Amino acid sequence: MRYIRYAFFGALALVLVTVSLANRGTVTLNTLPEAVAAIPGMGVLSYSIQLPMFLVILGGILAGLLLGFVWEWLREHKHRADASQKGAQVRKLERELKKTQAERDKDKDEVLALLDQAS
């Protein structure tokens, strides 16, 4: 299974390198369209930068992955909180069980008490 994973990552790397080499031309990224940037006061927010196209593509993929990870982390918060609450409840019940067993076994012989706990 490990070799299949390595083969997949190798193929993915080959595809990404091929796409990167095929898209080396520069493109201009603008924060605002020209019509909106022409509105008085909006020029402050207007920036532009020239980057190779492959950086734009890979940056978009990376931004999408990061947004997806954060979205899932936030969505699963209720499940993590529920698991934490149930874990605390289990620990509390285990403490109560040990306390109850200790009270039950206080008048017994130590060997018999250990045998009861083992089973």
Automatic annotation (TrEMBL):
Taking every annotated instance into account, which residue ranges of this chain make up the domain Lipopolysaccharide assembly protein A? 47-97
Which parts form a coiled-coil structure per UniProt? 83-117
Q: Which GO terms describe its cellular component?
A: plasma membrane
Q: Does the keyword Membrane apply?
A: yes
- Report the domain of life of the source organism: Bacteria
Keyword Cell cycle in record: no
Q: Name one Pfam family in it.
A: LapA_dom
Q: What UniProt keywords are attached to this protein's entry?
A: Cell membrane, Coiled coil, Membrane, Transmembrane, Transmembrane helix
The residue ranges crossing the membrane are 48-71
Q: Which InterPro entries match?
A: LapA_dom (IPR010445)
Q: What is this protein called?
A: Lipopolysaccharide assembly protein A domain-containing protein
Query: Source species, please?
Result: Pelagimonas varians
